[in-house]
Amino acid sequence: MGLRVLLLPPNPSPALLDAVEPDGVDVEVTRLPEHTSDALRAALPHCDVIVGDWSGQLRLDETEAALAERAVLVQQPTAGVETIDLDAWARRGVPVANIGPANSWSVTEWCLGATMNLLRSYRWADAQVRGGRWPQLGILDEARPRELRGSRVGVVGAGQIGTRLCAMYANLGCAVSYWSPRSRIDGASWMPLPNLLSDSEIVIVAIARTPDTLGLIGQDAVDSLPEDSILIDVSRGGIVDQNAVLKRVRARTMTGAALDVFGTEPPQLAPAVLGEENVLLSPHVAGVTRNSVAAQIGAVRDNILAVATGEPLLHVLNR
To answer: Protein biosynthesis: is it a keyword of this entry (predicted)?
Structure first.
């Protein structure tokens, strides 16, 4: 009997299907007959490796861990593991791994693009030309563009993405600070969160969602952001009070916001928000490029190979 792999993503790509059956490894892949918790729990006692659900619909909590009697690895095919109870699997002696830094460059680059879009009013300028206008000087009064160089940038989170963000913005001439409850970034300036929020012209939220970070940046924190500031959220829904952010953008007391994640996905947004040119909306794709997806799938394949050959696992989160 080969290695039994339970594949939970509802619509796995051909590349992912190939990755869970590496060449030279005897693998038996199981997919759920329906995308439900009942179907998941029925399948768990019979699998060795569980490839997590990147849609976030199926959780792997204590109940599921108890049923996975023969499991030796939970491999999440994304960076986020908020739908997995790491401690519950650790108590069962089952490692949980994610994709490590596979999409960190893609997210970092997206943040830079969003920053420039908002600082330099790309959408406004595009709309002017499409509307038959040519306001070369009018942009100064109407959109108030400014340079990135010299800006005070605050990064919330010190993981792979936060570390790359600090380095990139510093290299572009920004004064960069960061906050994290535990991790530290060599060569970067740590600042208490309230100070970072009230001082930064550009705030980028790139911290993992945990019970401790839910509601981390609530309305009072949003209200403390400087006038004309920008907030970019590439963390997970529920960390930032996005309604408070959108209210300030619409009131023109913030320059703009870029949101790639939402409390409910897809979100239900008011028409006034949808028509706001200083709000950049994105369907949770900051980390999705051809490069990053190839790296993600490679990380899944590498750990399945490691299980089959007895090699050390990569990117384990619950040792």
So the answer is: no
